[in-house]
Design a protein that fits this description.
The structure holds 2 protein chains of 2 kinds. By secondary structure, chain A is an alpha/beta fold. Chain A is built from 16 helices and 14 strands. Chain B is globular and about 60 Å long. Classes of the chains: A alpha/beta, B alpha/beta.
Chain lengths: 459, 459
C-alpha cells in the first residue's frame, strides 16, 4: 500500500465570500508610485492578497455574525458587556475588564495610570504603539529579550523569552521603584511572532514578585503563543490551548489586548486587571478617551462578537489550522531558499530583507524596498518591519534594528492554500531577480509612528 | 391627513424585559441612584441617550455586510469620505471611533493652559476634553436660551454681543476656536439659526478665530431652520445643511446621533496642515487614517446613514414625535423646556421638584423616580453633570437643572411614548413624595457617569 499523505484541513467551510480584483503590472506600477512606495498608502482595491496585517482582517464565524444581530446598543449596562466580562473572567482569568475600541486605547490608559516620568519599562522587544504610549506617559522602554531573538536565523524555539539577567541589571541600575512593570508580550511580533515559554513566564513571575514589580501582559496573540507551548514545551502536549492560556495569564497582574488579532474580530480591545485600584482609575479614565466603561468606544454588537470570538480562539482545532497555515507558507518559502525568520512564527512569515537584498544598506530601506517589489510582482501587500518601523530615538537618531524584515501577515480564516502557493511563488520570483533591485530614499517623514505614512522614492 | 407616520416599517425587533416597581426600587438602590449603573435589561424604556442607540435601516445593515476590513485604503473609507465631502463641503475627512475622540485630537492640537474655547453651550465630553488640555470652555448662550419655559424659535443661538466682548477682553491669541453646537444639546436640543451662524462667522473672520461646528445633530438643526427661519421654507434640508457647513472651517461629529450609527465619529476640515496634524495624533490613539478605530462595516453604515437622515419625511416624523411627547406634558402642567427640542424632551427639575434644593440634586432625584415608577431611564443635565465645587467645597450649581428624555431614532413607537407621558404625569402628580440625594462617591472628571448617591435621610 503506497504511503498516502495524511493531510489535515481547516475545521470550517466558507459561508460567505468577498470578491478579489485582479490588477495588471502597469496598474500596480502606477498604484505603487501614487502610494509613495509605502504599502500602507495603497488602496485596498488595488491589492490582490492583503497581508499587510492580521489586525482586524480576520473572517468572523457565522456564530459571531449571529452575535452581531444580538447587539444591545444601550449606552449603559449593555447585555453584551456582561457577556464579554464573564468570558474574559472564565477564559482568560482576569477579574476586572475595561473594554476599549482597540489595543492602543488600552495601552494609552494603562500607561498613563502605571507610568510616571522617568520610569523604566522593560519588555521582550519593542512594539510600535506599546512603546509610543509608554514614552508619552514619561517612561523609557528597555529591551530585555534574549539575544537569540535578534538573530533571524537562530532556531531557538522560544525566542520571545526574557533574559532575567538583563532585567536584573536594570533593577540594579535604576532600582525597583523606578520599574512599575515588565511589559511582556505573547507572542513577540517584531521578532517574527515568536513565543515565550511557560518556564520563562514562571521564572519571570518569581523574579518580579521578589522585587515588587508587576507583570503586564500584551496578550494580543496569546492563543498562538499557547500553541507553541503545547507543541514544543516539555509537559504541555496533553494540555488544551484553553488550559495553557489560562496558565499563562495566571503569571501576570493585568493585560492589554487587541482583540483584532487572536479574538477574531474586526474592531475591539480591552484592559483587564486583577487590581481594584488600577481598575477604578481606568474606569474613570476610559470615559475621557473611549466611552463609558460598559462599552469603551465599541458598539454592543462588537462586544458580543468579541465574546464569541474569544471562545473560538482557544479551540485546539482552530489554532492548529491557524498556525498550520502560516507554517505551510513558511516551509514553501524555505523550499525556494527565500531567507525568513526561523523558527516560523504564529501569525506571519517574516522575510529577512537584509539577507534578501544584501547590496542595499539599511539607510536605503531594504525592507521597504522589498515590500514594494513584492507588491509590484503579483499584487501582494506586506508590511515593512525594519528601520522605518523602528523610528527615531528621543535624541533624533535612527534606531538601526538588527532585524530588517518584511512581514507577510496572514489574516485568520481568510485565505486558502492556493493563495499561500501564489504568495510563495511570487516571493520566489522576486528572489530570483534580487540583484537588480535598487534601494530608496525617504522623502516624507511624520514625527510619530512614521512607518504608517512615510513616503519614498526609488534611487 | 393630519397623522404623520413613521417613514419606515419594522424589519427586526428586540424584546423589552418587564419588571415591577418593587423590583426597580431595589435595582436603583443597588445602582446607587445612578442610571448609568443600571443594567440595560432592567430598563423598560431606555431614554438615557440618543447616542448610538438608534435603529439602523436594512440598507445600513446591507452596508455592514459589504464592509471591507482592510487596514489601509479600504473602499469603505472612500465611500465614507466622499459622502461627508458631499454633505459638508469639507475636503479633508478623518474618521474617529466616536465624537470625543475627534474632540480630543482637535483640542490637543489647539488647546492648552491660558486658552479659551467659546461656544453657545459645550456638552459634557467637549467641555471635559477642553479642560483636559488645560484650556477653559466658555458658554455664551443667547438670552432666550437661559429661560427654559419661554418658547423662542432659536434658543441655541450664540450671544454675539457677549462673544465680541469676550474676544476684545481676552484677545484673539488666547482664543484658538469658536464651536457652535447644532442643535444645542445642553440647552435642550434647541436649534441655531442660519442668521446666527452667519453673524458668528463674521465675528470670527474679523478677529481671525477659526469656527468649527459640533455637528452631532446637524440634520435636526437644518430641519428647524427650514421650518422656522424666513427664506428657507423652499430649500431642501440637504441644501440648508451644506450652507450651514459652508460658514465653518471644519466640524467634529459623533455619527452616533444624526447618522443613525451605533458607533463612529469624524473630523472634517479645509486646512491641510491641521488635517495632517490631526492624522498624526489619530494614529497614536485611534488607528490608521483610513479606519480611525472603526471597522470598515461601520464606515459603510455611517455613509448610508448620513444620506438617510437628510430625508424630509424622516425629519418631519422625528421632530414631530418629540413635539408630541412635549405637548402631552405641557397639557398636564408638567414644566418642560419649550419649545420641544430636536432629539429630546427636557423636564425642568428645578420647577418640577421645587421643594428640593439644588445641592440635593433635584434632577437626579427625578431621574430615579421616573425609573422606579415606570422603568424609564433618563439622564440628569444639571448640577451633577456640570456642577463644580468652590474652595469651601460648596457646590457651584449649573445654570439649569434638567432631566433629559432622549428619544433614540427609529426605535420606539407611539404607544411607548404614550406610556412615557403617562409615567411622567403620574410622577408629577405625586412629586412632593420625592426626596433629594447626596453624593457618597465621585471621580474627579465626568462624575455623572460613575458617581454614587443615596437619598437624603428623612428627619
Amino acid at each position: 500500500m503506497k504511503n498516502i499523505k495524511h493531510s489535515w484541513a481547516e475545521p470550517y467551510k466558507i459561508k460567505m465570500v468577498e470578491l478579489l480584483k485582479m490588477t495588471t503590472p502597469a496598474q500596480r506600477k502606477k498604484a505603487m508610485q501614487d502610494a509613495g512606495y509605502n504599502t500602507f498608502l495603497l488602496k485596498s482595491e488595488d491589492v490582490y492578497i492583503d497581508l499587510l496585517t492580521d489586525s482586524g482582517t480576520s473572517a468572523m464565524s457565522d456564530r459571531q455574525w449571529a452575535g452581531m444581530m444580538m447587539g444591545d446598543e444601550a449606552y449603559a449596562g449593555s447585555r453584551n458587556f456582561y457577556h464579554l466580562e464573564s468570558v474574559v473572567k472564565d477564559i482568560y482569568g482576569y477579574k476586572y475588564l475595561i473594554p476599549t475600541h482597540q489595543g492602543r486605547g488600552a495601552e494609552n490608559i494603562l500607561s498613563k495610570i502605571l507610568i510616571k516620568k522617568g520610569d523604566i519599562i522593560p519588555g521582550n522587544m519593542y512594539f510600535t504603539t506599546t512603546r509610543l504610549h509608554q514614552e508619552l506617559a514619561g517612561g523609557k522602554f528597555e529591551d530585555i529579550i534574549i539575544d537569540e531573538a535578534h538573530d533571524p536565523e537562530n532556531d531557538f524555539p522560544f525566542k520571545g523569552n526574557i533574559d532575567l539577567n538583563k532585567l536584573d541589571k536594570l533593577i540594579k541600575k535604576y532600582g525597583a521603584k523606578r520599574i512599575p512593570y515588565v511589559s511582556m508580550a505573547t507572542s513577540v511580533n517584531m521578532a517574527g511572532g515568536q513565543p515565550i515559554s511557560m518556564k520563562n513566564l514562571k521564572e519571570l513571575r518569581a523574579f518580579t514578585k521578589k522585587h515588587g514589580i508587576r507583570v503586564i501582559h500584551d496578550m494580543t496573540r496569546v492563543a498562538e503563543n499557547a500553541y507553541f507551548i503545547q507543541q514544543k514545551e516539555k509537559g504541555y502536549k496533553d494540555k488544551t490551548i484553553r488550559e495553557i492560556v489560562k496558565e499563562i495569564n495566571s503569571y501576570t497582574d493585568g493585560a492589554t489586548m487587541s482583540a483584532k488579532k487572536d479574538a477574531l474580530v474586526n474592531i475591539g480591545g480591552f484592559l483587564a486587571v486583577n487590581d481594584w485600584d488600577v481598575f477604578e482609575e481606568a474606569r474613570n479614565m476610559v470615559v475621557v478617551y473611549e466611552g463609558l466603561h460598559t462599552y469603551g468606544g465599541l458598539a454592543g454588537r462588537d462586544m458580543e462578537a468579541m465574546a464569541i470570538g474569544i471562545g473560538e480562539s482557544v479551540n485546539d482545532d482552530h489554532i492548529k489550522a491557524r498556525v498550520g497555515q502560516v507554517i505551510y507558507l513558511g516551509e514553501k518559502m524555505l523550499e525556494y531558499n527565500v531567507p525568513i525568520v526561523t523558527p516560523i512564527g504564529g501569525h506571519g512569515i517574516f522575510v529577512d530583507a537584509k539577507k534578501f537584498l544584501p547590496h542595499i544598506s539599511q539607510d536605503q530601506f531594504p525592507a521597504q524596498t522589498l515590500a514594494a517589489e513584492v507588491y509590484l510582482d503579483a499584487g501582494i501587500r506586506t508590511m515593512e518591519r525594519g528601520v522605518v518601523s523602528a523610528g527615531r530615538k528621543a535624541n533624533g537618531e535612527n534606531y538601526y534594528p538588527k532585524l530588517e524584515l518584511v512581514r507577510f501577515t496572514i489574516p485568520r480564516r481568510v485565505y486558502t492554500q492556493a493563495h499561500m502557493d501564489v504568495i510563495a511563488e511570487s516571493v520566489a520570483r522576486v528572489y530570483e531577480r534580487r540583484n537588480k533591485i535598487k534601494g530608496m530614499k525617504m522623502i516624507y517623514e511624520p514625527k510619530y509612528l512614521r512607518f504608517f505614512q512615510a513616503k519614498f522614492e526609488k534611487l | 391627513m393630519n397623522t404623520i407616520i413613521e417613514p419606515f416599517r419594522i424589519k427586526s425587533v428586540e424584546p423589552i424585559y418587564f419588571n415591577t416597581e418593587a423590583e426597580r426600587a431595589l435595582i436603583v438602590e443597588k445602582a446607587f441612584y445612578n442610571p448609568f449603573l443600571i443594567h440595560s435589561t432592567d430598563v423598560m424604556i431606555d431614554l438615557l441617550t440618543d447616542s448610538g442607540t438608534s435603529a439602523m435601516s436594512s440598507n445600513q445593515w446591507a452596508g455592514m455586510m459589504q464592509g471591507d476590513e482592510s487596514y489601509a485604503g479600504s473602499p469603505s473609507f472612500f465611500r465614507f469620505e466622499k459622502t461627508i465631502q458631499e454633505i459638508t463641503g469639507f475636503p479633508l475627512v478623518i474618521p474617529t471611533h466616536q465624537g470625543r475622540a475627534a474632540e480630543k485630537i482637535l483640542f490637543s492640537i489647539l488647546g492648552g493652559k491660558g486658552k479659551y474655547f467659546v461656544s453657545n453651550t459645550l456638552f459634557d465630553t467637549t467641555r471635559a476634553n477642553i479642560e483636559f488640555s488645560g484650556a477653559e470652555g466658555v458658554d455664551l448662550i443667547c438670552e432666550e436660551g437661559k429661560h427654559p419655559s419661554i418658547p423662542a424659535p432659536f434658543k441655541g443661538n450664540m450671544d454675539t454681543t457677549l462673544l465680541k466682548k469676550f474676544i476684545e477682553e481676552k484677545g484673539t491669541a488666547n482664543i484658538p476656536l469658536c464651536i457652535i453646537t447644532v442643535t444645542n444639546n445642553s440647552g435642550g436640543g434647541q436649534p441655531v439659526s442660519m442668521q446666527n451662524i452667519k453673524e458668528v462667522r463674521a465675528i470670527c473672520t474679523e478677529y481671525k478665530i477659526p469656527l468649527f461646528i459640533d455637528a452631532c445633530r446637524f440634520a435636526e438643526n437644518s430641519y428647524f431652520i427650514k421650518l422656522r427661519e424666513e427664506g428657507y421654507a423652499d430649500k431642501s434640508v440637504r441644501e440648508i445643511a451644506k450652507e450651514l457647513f459652508s460658514y465653518a472651517d471644519g466640524c467634529t461629529m459623533s455619527a452616533k446621533k444624526d447618522a443613525f450609527a451605533n458607533i463612529g465619529g469624524f473630523l472634517a476640515m479645509r486646512n491641510e496642515d491641521l488635517a495632517q496634524h490631526c492624522r498624526n495624533l489619530l494614529i497614536m490613539t485611534e488607528g490608521f487614517p483610513t479606519y480611525g478605530g472603526l471597522a470598515g462595516r461601520d464606515l459603510e453604515a455611517i455613509a448610508i446613514g448620513l444620506n438617510e437622515v437628510l430625508d424630509e419625511h424622516y425629519l418631519q416624523y422625528r421632530i414631530r414625535s418629540i413635539e408630541y411627547l412635549s405637548n402631552k406634558l405641557i397639557a398636564a402642567g408638567v414644566p418642560v423646556m419649550q419649545p420641544a427640542g430636536g432629539h429630546a424632551v427636557y423636564l425642568d427639575a428645578k420647577e418640577f421638584l421645587a421643594h428640593i434644593p439644588v445641592d440635593q440634586y433635584p434632577g437626579q432625584a427625578l431621574v430615579a423616580a421616573l425609573y422606579v415608577h415606570g422603568g424609564i431611564r433618563s439622564v440628569e443635565i444639571g448640577s451633577l453633570m456640570f456642577g463644580k465645587y468652590d474652595e469651601h467645597k460648596k457646590l457651584i450649581p449649573a445654570q439649569l437643572e434638567l432631566v433629559r428624555l432622549a428619544i433614540p431614532r427609529r426605535v420606539y413607537t407611539q404607544s411607548h411614548i404614550d406610556y412615557v407621558a403617562e409615567v411622567i404625569i403620574e410622577v408629577f402628580n405625586k412629586r412632593d413624595e420625592i426626596k433629594g440625594l447626596t453624593i457618597t462617591e465621585e471621580p474627579p472628571m465626568l462624575r455623572h457617569f460613575t458617581a454614587k448617591l443615596k437619598p437624603i435621610e428623612s428627619k
